[in-house]
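Lecture notes, unit on protein representations.

Consider one protein chain, 255 amino acids long.
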Amino acid sequence: MNTKPNTRPSYTRFNPTTNGELHVGHLYMIYVNEAEAHENGGKFCVRFDDNQEVYDYGVSWTGERMTPEQIDDTKNRMVEDILWSGVQVDGWSSQRENQRRVREFLRHLNGGDDLKVRKCYTSQINPEIHWLDWEAGYPYVPHLTAEKVLYDYLDGCNLIIRGEDLLDEWALYYYFADLWGLPPSRQVFLKRLELESGEQMLDISKRKGGWKIRGYREQGWSPDKLRMMLAETCLIDPEKPWLVSNCRIQPIWKF
């Protein structure tokens, strides 16, 4: 029996959609991904999710249509926020820049057929056998998950850490990896950062507005102050690294 600990370097990624600015919930996930990657000599990369029309990513969280120039400006502001936070990023990429490469790879894996992936995925919501149609509309968009599997494979990503609201994609992600004989990335789902509002708990998200990294910057917060406040909120022991094992079950933001 092999009892040696897993010392394989972790290659993680932060994959933000480009329809709004980064908030403190994103920064929480960034810190954990960076820490897990650099704990054992791996790499942490940022890959902008800027090419998925079916999700209407050309629409900002305010509901306004964004031009390609506005999307690029949003990416630049994200880069500024991440660099300001002091995070060590080992690589930057864009899905839009690599879309042709990924879709060619997808057609190769599917024997040249980019419209039908395969007929065997079963949805819990609708327990019938579905054709995974490339042109399917939101919210049933299996081809977006298929593309994620390929982006991660081509980028060398072997550990994905993200919010538990994306847990329902886990089975489909592994389905595609198994279908194509690709090594699936390990996945960890953390509770999203929430805000206490009276007797309610609210998710911090782009659509709800505030808590943007840029907002705290404009208020005069330093990177060290924001990191310290997030550590006290999100970590069991704020003096220890931002590893998954040190994350609270439910972090509550109060600042």
